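Re-running PilZ domain-containing protein to confirm reproducibility after the cluster update. Everything else is unchanged from the original entry.
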Amino acid sequence: MNMSIVSFEADEQRQHARYKLPLKCVIDQHRYSSIDWSLGGVGVATGDATFEEGQVLPLQLQIPLDGFDMMLPVKAEVRHSSVETGRTGFKFVGTSPAAQRMLRYIHDSYISGELVEGNDILDFARRASGEVKLRPRKSGEAVPGAGNFRKAVGIVATLVLSLALAAFLASSLYTRLWVFEADSAVVTVDTVPVLAPANGIITNLVTGPVKSGERILTVLTESGQSTSVVASCDCTAEPIGPAVDTQIKVGAQVLGLRHADAKPHVVAMVDRSHLMALYKAPHVSVDLPQGTVLHDVAVSQLPKVSEQSAATSDRVAVKIDLGGHDLTAEIGTPAVVRFDNGPWFGLNQWIADMTGRILPK
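Result of re-run:
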């Protein structure tokens, strides 16, 4: 009985699976990085260097281990070499059984994830042959796994930045829905106005600490008579603008009297479109020029709107109580006032603070 015999031939070029495992290749005393390698050959990043196809060259395979580099001499035939790709492909030829076993051992150890130490390799090499050499790694050479570490760091950094960006977008949406700012604001203190008693020229003006009944303002009228104003309290007289020897009109404010127990506060000018939101008891924060942010503050006086004021002004004044904060030194400085009617005031403020530290402004 005749039987047909069918034979199969393996593809010689891809007889062995290729892996991107750490490996260096020394050719003519030049050290190159491998692109990939297998039990049958190695792809080397040769850059501008080219080699003649079919040429057989002695190679030194430098395989990084835990603290050592294994040097394995082999012979390889140039299968292709290109400047355009910067790659040269080598096929191992005439590889001794001992070298083949050593490559197999290293290959299987990497694939299985086992940590291969220098002593293990040395014991295996002694049993196989004397072809394998170990040398300590120099301090300037890359440590195996450094690429993986950098990759992990990059992943973590990307994750952190992604979370920060997501938090920033969430905070921006929250701000658009529930947060609004005052058009302008200033740290100030309540004072009693001192008005000019008549038309004329200021001949006397007292500022600083004054006593009740002390003459603080004198105006020389057009008729040549002097008219004076006395302090109504033991307080501090603060100048408003006009100075001595300047012309003044009756009723114009010249001084402000500040009581000793007067507390600084913030007056914020808010667009009238936010008037209803102000009556919903929003959370308030005050940003000062030196970077201080006050959160434990509150609206102490809501604006009263009349028909006349509604017709003449697009903004309303809101008085902000600063609680236990003493801002006497900040009187006259501007501030930024935010009103938050959202349900997660504390969380949104924390997110805004954290993203402000991480993301550039």
